[in-house]
Amino acid sequence: MAGPSVIELQQLTKTYSMGAVEVRALRGVDLQFSQGEYVSVMGPSGCGKSTLLNLLGCLDRPTSGTYRLGGYDLSQLDDDALSGIRGTRLGFVFQSYNLIPQLTVIENIGIPLYYQGRGEAEMLEIAERLAERVGLKDRINHRPFELSGGQQQRVAIARALVNDPLVILADEPTGNLDSASGSEILEIFDDLNRQGKTFIMVTHDEHISSRTMRIIRLRDGQVVSDVWN
Prior knowledge:
Layout: E1 5-18, E2 21-34, E3 38-42, H1 49-56, E4 64-69, E5 72-73, H2 79-89, E6 90-94, H3 105-115, H4 120-133, H5 149-161, E7 167-171, H6 179-194, E8 199-202, H7 206-209, E9 214-219, E10 222-228
Parallel strand pairs: 3-8, 3-9, 6-7, 7-8
Antiparallel strand pairs: 1-2, 1-4, 4-5, 9-10
Helix pairs in contact: 3-4, 3-5, 4-5, 5-6
């Protein structure tokens, strides 16, 4: 069951200047996401999906409009402040895993805590608990090259959870996986959502979106459909 609002977007726009040409990637998006929602964002290539995810993830700033996360307006924050938000309030799961190859599973999971200056004992305790949560308890000392694609994505999910974020953002999280591994990852998402985690996921796969409770479709930088499953 969805809870209180965690994200509010009002007339959000993003325009990119490419020489003399301006590209309007988002055109006045109004959306609200509540705690515990499981949302898929869909649409054709170039519709604004990635731009929206980048803005939600504080990887970019809107040209105009308002973005509130947990009640705080992030629209005018500087890069340092946005970096702090990324590290403490948001979790990311990418298609390409983005693990550090030289680090072990437990070190990759704990790396966000390291950058926050948390103690090593606390970092290891949290990382080990999350490794167990995603089914990797017996792999904590392995490095990414010793893991399958599905196992690497499990590490990425655990890393996304390490700061107990308000929202987890996922960009085609099963795109590099075979169907069996992809299903395992989606089952982890389903389970985490049942435990109250909020997910916003970009996908092109109708089968994947059918698992989510809400489907938002974009076209030409605008929301053209927002329906509940």
